[in-house]
């Protein structure tokens, strides 16, 4: 999008009649601006001076008179003095840096918006009614596909079954991903089409929930999902394009200007490239491909450069050490408190994990490893200790989620430049389930943001969308209150792990950029960085937690260009 679209039409018209001025700057003026400096201190400003490359030239301090662009020397043979190429008057509204969601699934968000979404269902019966209605409204779909179910929210006390799903739709295959993406729910027709019987064995790193007599009950956990996934129709390129555009629109409307895009497939990457080639890529994507094979197929010999004016870059590989707590796939040292005999699922042996990390590191790919349970986090920390003996320098090893830790392992996050990529709203959504799964003894070091930061690790916050809503204001409020939208529990859950308001803001902006080696490109509003910012309806540093959650984004700007506006924007 050209800055011309932001100029008053008369000025643009007059430019055709006047001598072309020297190269000049632009200004976003009359703002109530706030950002963080390199040390995390709040800086307030009244205007942003921009260059033609979309980067900040300088922030104009509060109280300074309106700055003028640099003037050429006057003389008979000199061109006309430069003036601002364009000006935007934001009429005193609040401007803050664009948010960076350090861990999200872009195509998952978009596809979820184009298929059946069960994330708003509160009971099994409500989900069944929604599935039944969706099937009736879409008679031509050979498969009913969707996501978002959560038996914990339903208060079901068990996993749903194929029989539960058959009661809604029995004549077509149905395949629905759990809210966390770590389990799938199939009806009888889907299991039949996939050839799954009582004799089907679960693959390593997976679990098939069983009914009486050893029959598959209908839920497939982690690696076992592949048994059904392999027969599910895949979206077309047109579907992928539409899904991306839906996801991007949602992200921009929430003030998210950059994403750590996780578990990206080759098809996902090609979708991003198609969007960039068509000049439809607005949000910045720091990409972590799904496994080593996909990473090397995309990058070849190493991370890509920034493409499309800083919009797209392959950073490295995403690996998995375990599953998720909600589906009891997180790998624990001790049994689940609510399921004696179960410790979760470790996906890789120590040797396998280290070999994969080494393969990525030798070509300078950044490594991001999903680890939720304490046993999985310990395994990844041990691997990083081992890798750091060989692979020196600034590696920024990422541990994604880091939800459950032993007390001894918390301090280890301060070594080797580890980045803890965590999601504040996971804590507020998970707390009751976590209490049941973990029991009281393991809770003090669960979702341990303050302790991890105090150990010396960089916190990078995100939402893990579409598992959680891509709402940075909800995440920001959760981070410094440890409370949900209803201000529960009183005083905060495990309140010793709260971070400050400013620390949380930094984790959603500059530190999230640092986590993706992008701190010189974006994350703050400062000279030399891209002018990525959002216009909001209130001062987030003065808002109460409930008011912060209610913040509305009015405009989103990336690289000095307005790329999204709400009604009236």
List descriptors.
569 residues; alpha/beta; Diaminopimelate Epimerase, Chain A, domain 1; nine-stranded mixed β-sheet; eight-stranded parallel β-sheet; 19 helices; 30% helix
Please give the radius of gyration in angstroms. Answer: 25 Å
Globally, the shape reads globular
Please report the number of helical segments. 19
Residue ranges: pLDDT <50 for 5 or more in a row?
A: 1-23
Strand content range: 15-25%
Cα end-to-end separation: 16 Å
Task: Describe what you observe in this structure.
This protein has 569 residues and is α/β, with parallel strands linked by helices. Among the domains are: 3-92, no CATH class; 111-229, Diaminopimelate Epimerase, Chain A, domain 1 (Roll). 30% of the residues lie in helices and 22% in strands. It has 19 helices and 23 strands. The strands form three sheets. Strands 1, 2, 3, 4, 5, 6, 21, 22 and 23 form a nine-stranded mixed sheet that branches. It has an eight-stranded parallel sheet with strand order 7-14-15-16-17-18-19-20. A hairpin with a 5-residue loop joins strand 3 (42-50) and strand 4 (56-61). Helix 14 packs across helix 16. It is globular and about 80 Å long. It starts with 8 loop residues before the first helix and ends with a strand. Mean pLDDT is 92; it is low at 1-23.
Summarize the structure.
Among the domains are: 3-92, no CATH class; 111-229, Diaminopimelate Epimerase, Chain A, domain 1, CATH 3.10.310.70. Helices cover 30% and strands 22% of the residues. It has 19 helices and 23 strands.
